Amino acid sequence: MRLLHLTSTYAPHVFGGAEKVVQCLAEHQAADGWQVGVTHLVPKPAERHQLNGVDVLPLQHRNPLWLEDSARYPGVIRKINKVATIYNYLTARDFAAVLDSFLPDILHTHSMPELTPMMWAAASRRRIQIVHTLHDFDLMCVRATLFKDGALCSPRHLSCRVMSLPKRISHRHVSQVVGVSQSILDMHRKQGFFQHLPEAAQHVIWNPVQAKPDKMHAPPNGPISFGFLGRLVQEKGIGVLLDACRAMPGGNWQVRIAGRSPTNDADLRRRAEGLPVVFEGFVTPKEFFRKIDVLVVPALWSEPFGLTVIEALLAGVPVIGSDIGGVGEIIRTIDESLLVPAGDAQALAKRMSHIVAAGRENLPALSGITALRDRTRPSSVVQLYRDVYALCQTHPSLARSTFRE
Questions:
Q1: pLDDT of 238-296, one tens digit each?
Q2: Which stretches does DSSP call E strand in 85-223?
Q3: Taking a C-beta distance cutoff of 8 angstroms, is the pair 279, 269 a contact?
Q4: pTM of the predicted structure, to 2 decimals
Q5: Do 166 and 29 fall within a single domain?
Q6: Left, alpha or beta for 237 (phi > 0: left; psi -120 to 50: alpha)?
Q7: Which residues make Cβ contacts (< 8 Å) with residue 141, sequence separation at least 6?
Q8: Which candidate, 328, 346, 347, places its Cα nearest to that of 336?
Q9: What is the C-alpha to C-alpha distance for residues 64 and 80, in angstroms, rounded to an integer?
Q10: Residue 230 and residue 150 share a domain
Q11: Are residues 324 and 198 in the same domain?
Q12: Helix (H, G, I), strand (E, B), or coil: what is residue 320?
């Protein structure tokens, strides 16, 4: 079987968790002897090459803005860029050439905010079965987050409903759909996506995580150390965490914040003045987990998975998190008492204060860690996707019987 992954970016142009997941999947599949390729956008022309056994087929981006630069432009320019991306015939044409060169049996598509849905049509015309993994909300939201102006988008904004219409139409080329959590799959189905697929073609597969389950707690002295790891943006709940810190009584605790703001973090630093809060900038997860006792993931948006949550738990670090999306789904398998209502700074402060009062020797236990490790082990995830691909081959008309071009 020849398998081609399609994703917006790929190593070394990695901007988020989805790209890491694709790389992990592709490299493990190649190590198992599969013929695996990955095609993705690059800022400048690049040659086809191999990386860790994977054929990498770069596509020069033809959108008006390269994704790393778009945040610097006004909103109206970014919307124009999104429209141009959706209808980018040149990218679809380039991708068709990749399909004719690589000749995949299965196309596995991933996060597509920078890609045109016409790529699905190109594969479908060639009778290539398509598996799509839902890593975010790009099929229904311009920002791919369903979050704007400090709140979840419910109902969706008119601009998103209009601009996502081509993806809503084209997604019916997909033969099998996979949600990285039950939450993200259910949210798409609630909005009318994947109604053309029978239940047997809809799956939930958690992301693979390459992490050693070694305990790497902070040294057994000093203040209880809470940590925040991720982009310093509103939907990640960094503001809620700072409000919770403001509501906590003084005492034997501190908060370490690792991550960068896409624009400027001066406002966050002002909000943290007078609090035992340390901004550490970019820190690798492994290094960061050694410094903290508890990770805090106070997401405001319905985060599809929560890779950082898994990495922390596998490193032996308990996680307090919001009770929505993939974050809530993961933490619920370990300890439901560590969940707090999304956006509730007072509830978060109460939970953090309880941990401080209990002391480091009474940190929450991680009783479900073995099952979590088994479920996210790369070899286990690869096998689950192998089963999904097999459905494409044994039932090629299963998902497409209701679609006509």
A1: 999 999 999 999 889 999 999 988 777 888 999 999 999 999 998 988 899 999 999 99
A2: 106-109, 129-134, 147-148, 151-152, 176-179, 202-204
A3: yes
A4: 0.91
A5: yes
A6: left
A7: 153, 156, 160, 164
A8: 328
A9: 9
A10: no
A11: no
A12: strand
